[in-house]
Specification:
The chain has 314 residues and is an all-alpha fold. α4 crosses α11, α7 crosses α8 and α7 crosses α12. The chain has 15 helices and no strands. The longest helix has 32 residues.
């Protein structure tokens, strides 16, 4: 396989299906936002440290470490750009569920999802442009596409920011209705989104099966490093076990669905990028649930590192 092959492969994704995928992601974020209240943000003013650590882990440390990993592994340019795209995205929409299963601080996880999603409107395009331009092999790809950071900000705002604000508004005005709608809508819209991604992969199954084993090990290493990044930073900062778990999960489970949409919108389904983001979207569910299963059964963590005052799990 030559470098040029995967970097020129395009995943077929028609315009109609792309719009449906956009709507599905918007509904996923709306469902997540229905469970977010202003009380979650007020709590952060009393104890902002975990949020600051989580945001730093997601938007500063992970992209920087991804850059170092790309230098070490030297993957094909389109694969490397896919790595930068995933690292630039906010936490994934299933992270709150996984944090709950892990006996982490669910309130912190939900708050991080909300704040990271809002910050992603600006940080995702900027991080992709900055690290992608800094790494020479991907800089040429960015120059060929000539994406507009401003245009990407607009798209991310429509996909994430608007549904998030609308969901929070419904929660504020009709909290009981939001609670009932939230559980059903988040699950239903997420399943619909996953089905659409699988259909897209099925239509391109020849390309997917031909190159999946090339990206498989890269995704595994990258995802493991993402989890380790969140865990290490949270532990170094002296956070409680519940908060350590939530930040670990928020850093390791990325919104690769957003990444896929941006790849299809701005990069014409560039093969290496699309395959890496798609496989990440599958694998982080597996790795996240495995980690949740381990932590939910492991009590020695709490015994060794008891909750500190002011950081109780809510």
């Amino acid at each position: 396989m030559t470098d040029s092959v995967l970097d020129t492969v395009r995943i077929n994704f028609d315009t109609h299906t792309l719009w449906v995928l956009n709507l599905a992601l918007a509904f996923v974020m709306f469902g997540v936002a229905l469970e977010i209240s202003m009380h979650d943000f007020k709590r952060l003013w009393k104890s902002p440290k975990p949020i600051l650590v989580g945001v730093c882990s997601q938007f500063v440390l992970l992209p920087a470490i991804t850059f170092l990993l790309a230098l070490l592994l030297q993957p094909q340019p389109s694969i490397a750009l896919g790595m930068f795209m995933v690292a630039a995205c906010p936490g994934g929409n299933v992270s709150n569920f996984v944090a709950h299963l892990s006996k982490g601080n669910t309130a912190l996880s939900v708050s991080l999802t909300a704040i990271a999603t809002l910050l992603a409107v600006v940080m995702t395009p900027l991080n992709l442009q900055f690290w992608g331009s800094l790494y020479t092999p991907t800089a040429s790809l960015l120059n060929e596409v000539a994406i507009s950071v401003g245009e990407m900000v607009r798209v991310v705002a429509l996909l994430l920011g608007v549904p998030l604000l609308l969901g929070m508004l419904v929660n504020y005005a009709y909290p009981q209705l939001a609670k009932r709608m939230g559980k059903l809508l988040k699950i239903a819209s997420l399943l619909f989104f996953v089905v659409l991604v699988f259909l897209a992969l099925y239509k391109n199954r020849t390309i997917f099966f031909e190159y999946i084993f090339y990206v498989f090990w890269i995704v595994l290493i990258h995802n493991l490093i993402a989890f380790f990044t969140g865990f290490s930073l949270a532990k170094i900062c002296g956070l409680s076990p519940a908060n350590v778990r939530s930040i670990t999960i928020e850093t390791g489970i990325q919104n690769s669905g957003l990444g896929l949409l941006l790849i299809f919108t701005f990069f014409d389904g560039l093969g290496g990028m699309a395959l890496l983001a798609a496989f990440w979207g599958i694998w982080h569910l597996v790795s996240g649930l495995l980690l949740a299963g381990f932590w939910s059964r492991n009590t020695s963590f709490e015994n060794e590192y008891p909750l500190v005052s002011g950081e109780e799990e809510h």
